[in-house]
Amino acid sequence: MSTYCIGDLHGCYDEFIKLLDLIKFDEKKDQLLLTGDLLGRGPKPIETLNTILELKNCVHAVLGNHDLNFLAICDGASKSKPRDNLEVVLKAPNLGEILDFYYACPLLYLDDDSHLALCHAGVYPAWDLGQAMKISKEVSKVLKDPLRRSILLHNMYKDNPVCYQEQDQGLKRWRFAFNAFTRMRLCDKHLNLDYGHSSTTVDNAAKENLFPWFDFCNEPRYKKKVYTLVFGHWAALNAKCSRQNMIALDTGCVWGGSLTCWCADNNKTCRVKSLGHLKPKA
Ligand SMILES: [Mn+2]
């Protein structure tokens, strides 16, 4: 059995299938961890989701910002934009099945056998994995409750709070969890999240006293074991994360980069080149 982690798919179905072929993925033996943003912008979201649903007994996926955007649109909290290419999913005959799958996806997944932690953007630096897991589970409960889910999805598009306060409860707390787990890239030395600068370089950010969230993290540990933290979201990093025990996987397939897979068992990485979909973000 092998555990493979694949970065942000964004509906890049053809590259996904090519990558599964390349690693000779065996659904009877192997497991697949996906860093989220399964859809959004890319060409084949339905094919991508249906493949994931077919593999769902051996797949663990976490929610990304584009997945949450999709859930918000389904709940009437936001409108779909043509560039997101979500219409085809909204009209899918199995939309109910897709939503059930999504509502069961956490913000943070821990694999206690392989000592892996999986999330979309990252783990807020003031949290250890235990605390992060507690907050992820809280939000998962909200997502499974239609009424509270709807309230959260209608109130998620805000760039606040910028930092975690233990006393923040309800919407403020859950929204911070959404923002930290799915949107975070840079923060200042007081651990205030920066919500702009999506494609800046790390060097340029430093000139504004902003640094990658992982610069402030302790070694990822859970129940006294060292974990490897796997994340996506930050295509501009191009999978370069200087920290030990942290693996960045988003290599911007949807922007014309590549789709990356990391095997937890042998620490090998392989990539499939993008078929070229969108122009890189300005
Ligand atoms: Mn993302």
Q: Class, according to the CATH hierarchy?
A: Alpha Beta
Q: What form results from the Cα inertia axes?
A: globular
Which ions, cofactors or small ligands are bound in this entry?
Answer: manganese (II) ion
Strand content: 15-25%
Whole-number count of domains: 1
Structural class: alpha/beta
Estimated radius of gyration = 17 Å
CATH fold title: Purple Acid Phosphatase, chain A, domain 2
Strand runs, count = 14
Return residue spans where pLDDT drops below 50 for at least 5 consecutive residues: none
Describe this structure in words.
The protein is built from nine helices and 14 strands. It is an alpha/beta fold. It has a single domain, classed as Purple Acid Phosphatase, chain A, domain 2. The strands form four sheets. It has a five-stranded mixed β-sheet, with helices on one face. The chain has a four-stranded mixed β-sheet with strand order 4-5-11-12, covered by helices on one side. The mean pLDDT is 96. The protein binds manganese (II) ion (MN). Manganese (II) ion binds at residues 37, 64-66, 120, 233.
